[in-house]
Amino acid sequence: MRCSTVQISASGISYLEGSRVAATVPKEDIRRIKLSYDSIARHPFLQFLAGFGLIVTGLILLIAAFIMAEVGAYFFHLASHTFNIPVVPIGLWLMVGAGLWLLVGVFRGRYNLLISTTQGNRKIFFEGATNIRDILHFIGRANQELGYDIDLSIMETMYIKAAPADDPANNMNSIQ
Hints:
disordered C terminus; 176 residues
């Protein structure tokens, strides 16, 4: 059975890239499986620091550039015959934008299966757009049909909005 990029079979749990199996954890090596939610950033702390640093530096320098423009200090412009381009403010706004983009990346996440094995921990990620109801139905089927015991303690801290009555995801028989 398959949900998004995760495939569970009687022999193990696999991560799929398209239709190709990219990684597999054999069932006999699995000690514990837990549903979790993690940042998509590989190094979230470093990405947060870089984003925060870019935003703060850009805003401080933008304020300084504004004060220099008001006082009358010389500002670097690229001039042509038809228009002037204020290079420094544009560069500083791009710096602030890049910092915001890095910060947003830290707080975006996706669901994964954290698998404890004899060799260590492995994470098999679902796609970012995968609905939590689909994941829960998939895990329920894996528990019932294949005997996997997947820890769902994350659900105790989550609020899942009830699906409307006409939502096909609410009908468990419609999901394969």
